[in-house]
Amino acid sequence: MTNLNEYKIEYRILTLVNCAVIEEGNKPASFDIDGVKFSHWDFNYSDGWVTNAWLATITLKTKNNQEALSKFIKKLSRLIPRIALISQAYVEYLSEPYLIHEIGNNIASFRYTKDVGATGLMFMDDERKALVKLLKDKKIPEAFYYYWNDAVNTTGYSAKLLLMFSAIEALAKKNGEKD
């Protein structure tokens, strides 16, 4: 018979949604669903929602910490898209930090990730000339630029592709009408 160990996992979820659910018996701004406790990462009554993040916590009995993490990620991959649909806001967890602690053991493992921000790109004279040329070009519909801007600003491969396809579709139209 295989020994099962108990692991507590805490996973940060980056989101623009303020967790404002208060269930009876829980501390403020938290709720439990499908074995996962969701709470706001940094909430207090005087300042409110200080950060744009939640904390997802679960306790699981598994063979090892990697199996525990795998089961938790599988559970989150089912819950998070539904939270994003209902809240209609940005929610990301796969690139966020987490902590796995085997209960009864003084050793834990973690992954720490830090947002390092973006690297700037240069807008120089060649780019300015291209902009002047594009402003004069009436063949490219405005919708193309709107879709392309959204594609550049969105995260996620699927979303980028869908927006790029919409931009290309806009190029195929003339004055908003299909050929």
Characterize this entry briefly.
The protein has 179 residues and is an alpha+beta fold. It contains four helices and nine strands. Strands 1, 2, 3, 6, 7, 8 and 9 form a seven-stranded antiparallel β-sheet that branches. Strands 4-5 form a two-stranded antiparallel sheet.
Distance separating the two termini: 68 Å
Low-confidence stretches: none
Largest sheet: 7 strands, antiparallel
Q: How many beta strands in the DSSP annotation?
A: 9
Shape estimate: elongated
User: What is the H/E order?
Assistant: EEEEEEHEEEHHH
Total DSSP helices: 4
- Structurally, how many domains make up the residues? 2
| Cα radius of gyration in angstroms | 23 Å
| Mean pLDDT metric | 85
Per DSSP, what share of the residues sits in E-state strands of 2 or more residues? 25-35%
Helix content: 25-40%
* Structural class by sheet pairing and helices: alpha+beta
Q: Can you characterise this structure?
A:
The chain is an alpha+beta fold. The chain has 2 domains: 5-111, no CATH class; 125-172, no CATH class. It contains 4 helices and 9 strands. Strands 1, 2, 3, 6, 7, 8 and 9 form a 7-stranded antiparallel beta sheet that branches. Strands 4-5 form a two-stranded antiparallel sheet. A hairpin with a 5-residue loop joins strand 8 and strand 9. The radius of gyration is 23 Å and the shape is elongated. The termini are far apart. 12% of the residues are buried. The model has no long low-confidence stretch (mean pLDDT 85).
